[in-house]
Amino acid sequence: MTALLKFHDVRCEGSDRTHSFTLHAGETRLLQFSSTVEKDIMIDMAIGETDVPEGQIEIVQGDRRRKRTVGIGQQGERRHLDEPLPVIWQPLSASMAGSVGWVAANGGLISNLKIWENVTLPLWYHVRREVIETEQSVMRWLDVLGLEQHACAEFMAASPYSSELWQRKLAGLLRALVQMPKVLVVDAVVFEDVNEHFAQSWVTALEAYATQGHAVLVMADKATTLPWEKIE
Amino acid sequence: MKNPVLRLQNFLGMEGLFLRDSVALIWKALFALPQVLKWPVRNILLKQLYFTGIQSVGPISAMGFLAGLIMVMQVSNLVGRNELLTLQVLIWTVVRELGPLLTAIVIVGRSSSAIASELAAMQVNGEIKSLRRMGISPVDYLVMPRMLAMTITSLALTFYFQVVAIGTGMVVTAWNIDVSLIGEVGHFFEMLSYLEIFAALLKSICFGMLVSVVSCYYGLTVNRAMTEIPVAASRAVMRSLLAVFACDGLITVLFF
Question: What is the pTM of this model?
């Protein structure tokens, strides 16, 4: 099996626990943390948004991230002239261009875009797919994710603020799946507060995704009934 | 912090930070210009052109008409039936100053607070973070198209304002002191210098760029509290106005 993501003694600030594991193609694993803060920091580190303060995260077939000594200024904090620019000014990690995808707890949608624009935004921004191909991929994944064919058009045309939470989560999941990253990092909260039918469909969809040569890492901040093997 | 020296030091430090970050933002946005070829970025650009440009045509028309009318009536009262002096004053005021300045004020009023509060809301809701997590740079996707749209809009609306204001002024003068409108147009082009056209162009470009960058800066540098959104919008408006007037003063001193 091909290794896609490796954690080497990764520890986030404020935690006394280190994480070392390897995620292979075809695997869907569950990583549980003791707090929401720790989970969020670990998601940021896994997708390359923040540096790894201790240890190393290696994305195989992508770039390698190591512990860096250069700090990045936090948004909105009061800074001095000799301090670095705000984080939004900073360049993005090269690994983000397709190696690691992410599904946010609430879908992570952009509120001034329609659902379909949200779903296609990263695809068309990174210029990876033709329109026809995108459309086919979206329809196929919507079917796997459990949305009825007749509800698709209305769902895609809706705005995030007029959609229910489960619809926003569905859109976030769909957006991540159609991007087809090597590794998909999923916040386990996605599976909360959705009906049984959708929760089951989404579990099946992630497993199907993993079997296509990808890996799925589900991160939780509390005990969960999700069926995947837990990383100890 | 009660010590006035420390307060002044802190104030100057924050101003320096604002200047440095704004220059850095302009620099990064200029480097991001090729991103406009991407459809999602182009979409934002078109939306912004519509919002800042097309929707401002009405207010700009009204202001241009009234500015031309008021100007000519006041100058006529001052200098009497002197067509050439009236035209000269129109050029001095409308082309050199009022055109770029009033257009910038309309843009600030319409778009500065809107941009700052929109970006601040996106920041508070974690949408900026979402963009970064999708590998989309907020500077490329949010700042650059707004900066480009506002610069183009400022340029186009300034020209439109000048045409409306000077056109109104000429019509009113022709009607008021009974001179030929065609003759007035001829005199206008004889009096207008390339320096005046260049200064007006430069001002409108600088104003559009400044307003957009200041608005984006205040929108993007909020923390995670809802209460910061109106503060960011208000600061963006005040700072944009200040930046526009400072830039206007600088260009006027340099050119005239």
Answer: 0.85
